[in-house]
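Input (structure):
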C-alpha cells in the first residue's frame, strides 16, 4: 500500500518557521547613601553569581555613577532577580533598590 507523500508545502506550511526571540530586560541596581558597600558586593555575588573582583567593580560603578546594569535576562528572570535584590535588602533593613528596564535593540 502506497501512502501519499506529506510535506510542509502540501499542508500549506512554510518550510522555515520563524520564531521571535523574547524581549530582554536589564536589572539595574540604584545607589543610595546608606547601604554598606560590602552588602552590595554580597548581593552581586549571591544573586548574579559575580566573582569578587567583578562584584567590587560593579559596586564601585553603582557608588560613583548612581546605578549599574547587573545582567540582561528574559522578563521573568529579570523580575525574579530584581525581587530577590529588593527582598534581601529589605530583610536586612537596607534601602538598596533594583529595577528592570527593557533593553534597547
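Output (sequence):
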Amino acid at each position: 500500500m502506497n501512502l501519499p507523500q506529506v510535506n510542509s508545502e502540501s499542508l500549506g506550511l512554510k518550510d522555515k518557521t520563524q520564531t521571535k526571540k523574547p524581549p530582554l530586560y536589564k536589572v539595574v541596581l540604584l545607589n543610595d547613601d546608606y547601604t554598606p558597600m560590602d552588602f552590595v558586593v554580597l548581593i552581586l555575588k549571591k544573586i548574579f553569581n559575580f566573582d569578587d573582583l567583578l562584584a567590587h567593580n560593579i559596586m564601585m560603578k553603582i557608588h560613583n555613577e548612581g546605578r549599574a546594569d547587573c545582567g540582561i535576562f528574559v522578563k521573568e528572570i529579570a523580575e525574579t532577580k530584581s525581587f530577590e535584590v529588593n527582598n534581601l535588602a529589605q530583610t536586612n533593613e537596607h534601602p538598596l533598590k533594583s529595577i528592570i528596564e527593557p533593553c534597547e535593540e
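Notes: The first strand starts at residue 24 and ends at 30. The chain has a mean pLDDT of 91.
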